[in-house]
Amino acid sequence: MAFKSHFKFSNSQRNGIFLLAILIITFQCIYAFVDFSSEEMPTDTKALEHFRTQVDSLKRLEAEKNTPKVYPFNPNHITDFKGYTLGMTPEEIDRLLEFRAKDQWINSAKQFQEVTNVSDSLLEVLAPLFKFPEWVTHPKPKSDWVEYSNHPSQKTYSSKTYAQKVDLNTATAQDLQKVNGIGEKLSDNIIKYRNKFKGGFISEIQLQDIYGLTPEVIIRITNDFAVKTPRLVEKINLNTATKDQLVTIQHIDYEVAHYIIEQRTLREGFKSFDELLQVKKFPAQKIGIIELYLKLN
Questions:
Q1: What pTM does this model have?
Q2: I need a surface site. Which of 124, 141, 145, 214 has the fewest CB within 10 A?
């Protein structure tokens, strides 16, 4: 009986064995001569600290961006919503609105507290944000008021009651000229401006738009006159108004109307008129007049 040898290989088998041997030798050499020990990469602590600083700075900027900003404002124009967001109680807001309804004005932080009875702690927060008109914060020397008090129509400088005041919408040129600082030219300017609108003035604040009237003269006018029969206007809803509707309002042109609608979209609607002050190119000094034509939801 003949036995088949187990050590007899074909050409392909021999080639496979030869290739396996080469691979084994190669891996043994790599294992023997290559150093696989791990070495820690050097850390650039200065660069890492710089990166951390940048990240912290970006975080702070994002936090500031998302934090509601409160801009300086005239406390005489605080609304229910504005007062609530400032931390005032309903009773404190009501006292302020009742005071303003009597056609009286707050001219200092101290007077604001006397009228509203807000706490010292809240006043400390709000007072730095108060922005009063220039003629309140930087009044003329007292001698100017002495001259006014000697005027025949007003012997002493004391504000008249609402009942004593003349309706600005029916006042004649002669009535207006009784005010110190008002001559024929200025009285004519006032009446011409009033006659531009059917029904006359809406509010005394519109006196700011009359050429030649200084803040001092305006306060003298409002001491003797008040708009008792205001012109009726159909107020436009700020949160639904179109661009064409907005440009019908004094001091708003198409560019400002565009930015108002853009800001309204970003905010998903305005919550208060004060937010208009953040609109690009908005005429902030005229916001009191612009508010006469607007309403909110």
A1: 0.50
A2: 141
